[in-house]
């Protein structure tokens, strides 16, 4: 690309942005944050906690959902049919998740369970775990005796709880596409206006960050995801200016002690993400684009850290963070090479087959 990009549309091709690299950094940030929590069971020890009730992992997940909105909207735009879009989303999430649950239940579990091997493998929870979690029927399911003596006991993989909200965001976006709400600007603006009602809920309700309902969580994640979808929808008119980011950060800072903090945080985080994505990426961008390890690091990070804490009681938070990142990266590489990349190849073949069978009128996309 010649010259500095001026609008978001100019960086949406993978070779022109750092979306993959930002997702990798966000996944690593979540692992680091969890390492401090899992070694101490003290919320205050998590990075950035001193700045408020939101820690580093919280902000990293925000980035994940904004980028997901941009990328999934782009996937929808390119899909030749709704069937191929749904299949591509399923193939991106479920095979890697299934592999992670099988590894956790049948490799990690027997090594760290306080029960005997006979009791472990005769317990129905061991065999149900991969099914329940992959189907997202019971994403927080436990395993018999696993991590029972850790500072955060019996929690097998808390990181996975956000996946059901991501899938829910995909589902809502799919329904909006089927209804035609994403085909032109006017109905899409209507979606934005209706979603503003969610802003009213999270902005003006009594704040209690320690007691949030599923509706509260969905409100947060849907607004972040929708922000990414809106970025993609208006990509030709979204300017890339550091002065605008500075203004967004200033407004966020001014409103950080008010009820508007969540909304201002979302806007500053989202715009900051696309500005960072516009920077030159070099070899790091190329690596992240060729080897998408972010998902694997995210889903393996928690059980890896819990296992380290189990095998080495008293391990420091920094040591746990460093070792967890290393081991999670190794598992993520294996997952990417053996499971995720082959699934993506299958997704591409299905997309080509769907295009050969479909008529142009069946194409569902997001227009500018």
TrEMBL record:
Keyword Hydrolase part of the UniProt annotation: no
BP-aspect Gene Ontology terms: polysaccharide biosynthetic process
TM region positions: 21-39, 59-76, 97-121, 163-181, 188-205, 217-234, 241-257, 263-283, 318-339
Span of domain Acyltransferase: 19-333
InterPro entries assigned to the protein according to its UniProt record, in alphabetical order: Acyl_transf_3_dom, Acyltransferase_3
GO cellular component: membrane
Keyword Membrane found: yes
GO MF annotations, alphabetized: acyltransferase activity, transferring groups other than amino-acyl groups
Assigned keywords, A-Z: Acyltransferase, Membrane, Transferase, Transmembrane, Transmembrane helix
Name by which UniProt lists this protein: Acyltransferase
Organism in which the protein naturally occurs: Enterovirga aerilata
Lineage, opening ranks: Bacteria, Pseudomonadati, Pseudomonadota, Alphaproteobacteria, Hyphomicrobiales
């Amino acid at each position: 690309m010649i010259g500095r990009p001026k609008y978001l549309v100019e960086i949406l091709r993978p070779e022109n942005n750092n979306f993959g690299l930002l997702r990798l950094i966000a996944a690593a940030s979540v692992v680091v944050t969890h390492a401090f929590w899992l070694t101490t069971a003290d919320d205050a020890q998590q990075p950035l906690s001193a700045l408020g009730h939101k820690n580093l992992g919280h902000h990293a997940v925000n980035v994940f959902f904004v980028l997901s909105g941009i990328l999934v909207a782009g996937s929808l735009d390119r899909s030749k049919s709704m069937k191929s879009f749904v299949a591509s989303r399923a193939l991106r999430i479920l095979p890697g998740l299934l592999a992670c649950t099988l590894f956790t239940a049948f490799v990690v579990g027997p090594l760290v369970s306080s029960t005997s091997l006979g009791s472990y493998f005769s317990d129905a929870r061991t065999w149900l775990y991969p099914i329940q979690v992959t189907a997202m029927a019971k994403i927080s399911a436990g395993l018999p005796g696993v991590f029972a003596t850790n500072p955060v006991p019996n929690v097998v993989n808390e990181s996975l709880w956000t996946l059901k909200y991501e899938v829910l965001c995909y589902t809502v976006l799919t329904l909006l596409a089927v209804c035609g709400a994403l085909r032109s600007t006017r109905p899409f603006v209507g979606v934005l206006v209706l979603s503003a009602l969610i802003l009213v809920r999270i902005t003006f309700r009594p704040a209690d960050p320690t007691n949030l309902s599923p509706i509260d969580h969905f409100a947060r994640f849907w607004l972040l995801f929708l922000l990414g979808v809106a970025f993609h929808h208006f990509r030709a008119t979204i300017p890339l200016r550091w002065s605008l980011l500075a203004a967004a950060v200033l407004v966020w800072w001014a409103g950080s002690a008010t009820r508007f903090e969540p909304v201002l945080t979302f806007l500053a985080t989202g715009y900051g993400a696309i500005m960072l994505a516009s920077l030159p990426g070099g070899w790091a961008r190329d690596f992240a684009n060729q080897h998408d390890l972010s998902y694997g690091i995210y889903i393996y990070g928690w059980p890896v850290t819990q296992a380290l804490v189990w095998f080495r009681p008293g391990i420091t938070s920094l040591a746990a963070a460093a070792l967890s990142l290393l081991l999670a990266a190794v598992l993520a590489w294996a997952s990417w090479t053996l499971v995720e990349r082959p699934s993506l190849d299958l997704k591409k073949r299905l997309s080509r087959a769907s295009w050969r069978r479909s008529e142009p009128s069946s194409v569902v996309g997001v227009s500018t």
